[in-house]
Amino acid sequence: MIEDKIFTKQRLINLAIIVTAIWFTWFAQVTFDEYTVRIINNVAIFIILAVSYNLINGVTGQFSLEPNGFVAIGAYVTSILIVDADTMLYQYDIEDPSAWVLAMQADFAWALLFAGIISALVALSLSFPVFRVRGDYLAIVTLGFGFIIKILAINNPQITNGSLGINDIPEYSNLYWTGGIAIFTVLAILNIIYSKYGRAMKAVRDDEDAATAMGVNTFKIKTLAFSTSAFFEGVGGGLLAALLTSISPDLFTFFLTFQLLIIIVLGGLGSTTGAILGTIFVMAGLEYMRFLDEPMSFMGIETEGTPGMRMVVFSLILILVMLFAREGLTGKKELKDFFKKKKADK
Question: Does the predicted model carry a pTM greater than 0.70?
Answer without folding.
Answer: yes
